Amino acid sequence: MNLSNCPLKYRQFQKRPETFRNFVIAHKLLHLKIPNHRKLFKRMLSAHIPQWRKIKDSQTLNRKVG
After folding, report:
1. Over pLDDT 70: what percentage of the chain?
2. Domain, as residue range, for 42
3. What is the pTM of this model?
């Protein structure tokens, strides 16, 4: 895939680990049904990606450090 014409954010997203990309996709898809980040949203996300907190935290830490 040629990323030279893609927006910068997409190129940065593609460089992230697959586990993080899957988390982001699941997160965005869940927002089609649940518009907020309350308990139901977190329960549903946990049902699909049990380690989502760990994945999110590791990528947030990497972004701040790197």
Report:
1. 82
2. 16-60
3. 0.77
